[in-house]
Amino acid sequence: MTTQIQPDTATRTADPDAPLLTIENLEVTFRTRDALVHAVRGVDLTVHAGQTLAVIGESGSGKTVTSRAVMGLLPRTATVRGSIRLGERQMVGLGEKELRRCLGREVGMIFQDPARSLNPTMRIGNQLTEAIRVHLPMSRRQARERAVELLAMVRLPAPARRFHEYPHQLSGGMRQRVMIAIALACQPGLLIADEATTALDVTTQAQIMDLLLDLQQRFAMGLVLISHDMGLAASYADQVAVMYAGRVVERAPTRRMIAHVRMPYTRALLDATPRLERPPHAPLPVISGRPPDLRVLDPGCAFAPRCSRSQDRCQHERPELTEREPRHEWACFFPCADDSLPGEDER
Amino acid sequence: MTAGNGTGRPLLEVRNLVQEFVVRAHGGVRGGVVHAVSDVSFEVRAGETLGVVGETGSGKSTMVRSVLQAPPPKSGEVWFQGVDLAGARKRRDLVAARRQMQAVFQDPYGSLDPKWTVFSIVEEPLAAYRTGDRRQRRARVEEVLDLVGLDPSVFGDRKPGQLSGGQCQRVAIARALTLAPALIVCDEAVSSLDVLSQAQVLNLFERLRAELGLSYLFIAHDLALVKQVSDRVAVMYLGTLCEVGPAEELYRNPLHPYTKALLDSIPSPDPERPRPRVPDELAGEPPSPLDPPSGCRFRTRCPRAAEICAVEAPPVRAARPDHTVACHFPLSPAAPVSPVEQSGDSAAE
After folding, report:
1. Same domain for A249 and A336?
2. Mind telling me which CDD domains this protein's record contains (chain B) (predicted)?
3. With contact defined as beta carbons under 8 Å apart, do B169 and B191 qualify?
4. Same domain, A195 and A308
5. Which of A16, A167, A184, B58 is the most buried (most CB within 10 A)?
6. CA-to-CA distance for B306 and B296, rounded, in angstroms?
7. Euclidean distance between CA atoms B78 and B80, whole angstroms
8. What is the pLDDT of residue A6?
9. Mean pLDDT across the stretch A43-47?
10. Are residues A182 and A316 in the same domain?
11. Angstrom distance (rounded) from CA B110 to CA A263
């Protein structure tokens, strides 16, 4: 299945080592009627070409808001501060028109619910052709040919026939394939998948992840997986960033992170995840409490009230995310010991 | 808290359950008969948790709804505490049985009335069954709220909109507990929760089971999650049960090719383990329940399928003690395979 689509190298930076995406000190606040919600509180992230970064966190951790800020998809009530650079271009403060031009060409995004992202009254082929023609100077016929190629590229069975079908005629997995085709229509350098496989069955999830990683390698794309699933991150990502209450609290290459968890919150997440290896009925080790109220800006560590290792210092002073071991950053004064839990590493 | 009924029979016994829906063709959607549940038999024993796993459209939700008689199945028997609910056309029998059989559903906000307080939500079953006077009801509501870890003085007057997803689910569980049921049916009850609140609620289910001697019919699509709470697990595919067996054994030595495929698809949090691999045969999606394959329903995606699979539906066989599989060519049968009668599953006891 070969396609004539070439990566759009013009939009890439000249320096191959320069990151595709650089987020620096990103802050997002939402105005509500009676308060300010500090959803993202100073996030730094970078993604390189060919790299897969998993951003892990619970609802309200700010992972989705961060990705939407990159795409300029936040509502008007949001205030974005800090810096988001796609290659050389600063995205924060960009007008809607310029934003539209970059989105799709330089960065694509797929969402959790493909049924709601597609227009139910349009044939999928037309939706795909539209996405192509918005960005590329192509005739209707050229775009149409390209669309069928794209559908074949995402391994949609019988692409020429599916081209004329409506979203409701496809299964969830097939719709997500169409969404991937639309997101990749202009060969963006970066693809953000926001819980893209969460609504799918496990066998379908495995197929979609296979496809995503295959396409990523073929086009040397940067891939950001936004997810709550540690299993997904561990299996598919090169690097993991764990978010809690609007901040990145731990970041490391995947293997290193799982084998040497230092941030107590990451530990708590891993321990509380049911696993196939665990015997039935063994109680899950789980911390109590809830994520903090995002309207309140506390001086200390946001995780301290739920943390078994917290001490006085954690209440008053916030630990910064710092590289404390090679390529391993965490934001904690009293991290877990390196040989974390006995039996966890040496399974 | 009467769990069994003294005769040694299981708490819930489902035999040859069939549920079908007729749909009319409209707007490009095909019409016909949806074979949602086809000839399913299983049992839930007193004090145990039976987990049911399966993908979207496998019919697991339809199956539990048929068990709850909402709506009643097309055919088959549902014996609960010695009463055949499907046959019991007497409303009184059904009402009495439902009291002992409560459900917790997936959407914590959708299953609670947003305008009611937590207290009245949890009290409603007592009122509906005209149980006790006001004071007794209040005491019972406070008792069950305590049981699920919600302080009645703090949460009693709140409304669902003021609660987190995990707290809502606790309220739904408290409501299910007020009438002191013997069986709780959980249909994806923790699937919409975050990892930490999910673990909290799973531990709560386990604690209640131990403290109250509850039985659960636990439906979910997440295999690891189902293993966490189940004594036995049933695997469902396109309206039929592929395999039923003790949790640990079924996960370690799956007998049905579909069970194995499901297990192989799960990404593990351990990066040293290989990436999920889906066999090529399994690529694509299950066939439509409008037009299920002849013979074995899984044969169109099965790597082991042969001619007989298209001709004859595989009988349910006891491959190991307490472990049944419906497959002509099961994986690694450790014990000699002998056919058992469809309805005779319980006779093995």
Report:
1. yes
2. ABC_NikE_OppD_transporters (cd03257)
3. no
4. yes
5. B58
6. 10
7. 6
8. 45
9. 95
10. no
11. 35
Residue A115 covered by a domain = no
For A341, the 3-state DSSP assignment is coil
pLDDT tens over chain B, length 349 residues: 444 444 568 999 999 999 999 888 766 566 788 899 999 999 999 999 999 999 888 899 999 999 998 888 999 999 999 888 877 667 788 888 888 999 998 887 888 999 999 999 999 999 998 888 999 999 999 999 988 888 999 899 999 988 888 889 999 999 999 999 999 999 988 888 888 888 989 999 999 999 999 999 999 989 999 999 999 999 999 999 999 999 999 999 999 999 999 998 888 888 778 888 877 777 767 888 888 999 999 999 898 899 999 999 999 999 888 999 999 999 975 544 444 444 434 333 3
pLDDT of res. B347: 38
Domain membership of residue A66 as a residue range? 18-106+189-274+283-347
Beta bridge partners of A41: A27
Rounded to a whole number of angstroms, the distance from the CA of B139 to the nearest CA of chain A is 26
Q: Please report, for residues A162, B264, B282, the alpha-carbon distance to residue B254 in angstroms, rounded to integers and kept in the order given.
A: 36, 11, 16
| A290 inside 8 A of chain B by CB | yes
**Cα dist. A228→A191, B180, B194 in Å?**
18, 35, 8
CA count, 13 A, side-chain hemisphere, B100: 22
What pLDDT score does B342 carry? 42
What total of structural domains would you count in chain A? 2
Inter-chain CB pairs, A–B, below 8 Å: 141
What pLDDT is recorded for position A14?
53
| Cβ under 8 Å to B: A residues 65-94 | none
* Cβ neighbours of A281 in B, within 8 Å: 206, 228-229, 231
DSSP reduced 3-state for B258? helix
A191, β-bridge pairs: A108, A223
Q: Strand order in B49-53's β-sheet? A: B101-104, B183-187, B215-220, B49-53, B232-237, B240-246, B323-325, B317-320, B338-339
Nearest to B199 among A232, A235, A286 (CB): A286
Residue B222: list chain A partners with CB under 8 A.
202, 274
> Would you say how long chain A is, in residues?
347
**Residue whose tokens read 């796993």:** B53
Amino acid identity of B298? F
d(CA A80, CA A86): 16
Cβ-based contacts of A230 with chain B (< 8 Å): 195, 269
Is residue A226 domain-shared with residue A267, that is, in the same domain?
yes
Residues B260-305 pLDDT 10s: 999 988 888 887 788 888 777 777 678 888 889 999 999 998 988 9
Quote the CA–CA distance of B117 and A293 in Å, as a whole number: 22
Contacts of A169 (CB under 8 A, 6+ apart): B28
Q: Which of A164, A276, A293 to mutate to test the interface with B (most CBs of B within 10 A)?
A: A276
Burial class (CB within 10 angstroms; exposed 0-12, middle 13-18, buried 19+) of B218: buried
Alpha carbon of A133: minimum distance to chain B alpha carbons (Å)? 28
On whether both A178 and A45 belong to a single domain, the answer is: no
Residue of A11 and B85 predicted with greater confidence: B85
Q: Of the residues A148, A164, A187, which one is the last residue of a structural domain? A: A187
